[in-house]
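User: Quick sanity check before I run a bigger batch. Here is a single chain. Can you write out its predicted 3D structure?
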Amino acid sequence: MGIVQRFRDRLSGWSSSTRIRPQRIIAAICLACACALVVWMFTPEESGTAVVVAKKDLPPGSELSAQDLVLIDFPSGLVPDKAFTSVAEVGQRRTSAGLSKGSPITRAIVLDQQALPEGSTDLLMPVRLADDASAALLQPGQHIRLFSSLPDGGSEVVVEEVTIARLVDKPEGIASESGQLVSVILSSADAGRIAEFAGMPISFAILPG
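Assistant: Done. Predicted structure follows.
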């Protein structure tokens, strides 16, 4: 019986020595949480920049309103050049090209009726289009090709492509020239080409895109 008792006493000793106390588990969890908190506090946050983007697909010449736009945070290194960061800055401007949902709004893709984008070498030039009825199809942002009727018949391409910046409203109650006056964005070389056709009827074709 003495041997059996000694064997039981040894088993009891092993059991008590290998048992993990609850206090030790709690202490280990607290230590892990404290380490995680320290790491979080000293990890630098990635600061983003709010950029105005299209809330839906928009065709060329769309007049932008708050309902068309939304602010999205972009990582600082991915913010497009000359991107708008305030919806109020973009309001009532028109797009110079079609935009898909989520596209950032930049100064390069909106038309300013008063001035060209900073650094641009293009010009704003008024052009009177002969056909009032056809001109009703036009809107800012569209790209058009200009033609002129020749005195001996036929027609000639005046400029391959210009962008409409603005349709000039006709004064009411005053007899004015026929034809729609538009302001177009074009190069200085194309402006000189149009000047060669001064006084001649100018027609147009709307280009795709």
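The radius of gyration is 36 Å.

User: Great, the batch can go ahead then.
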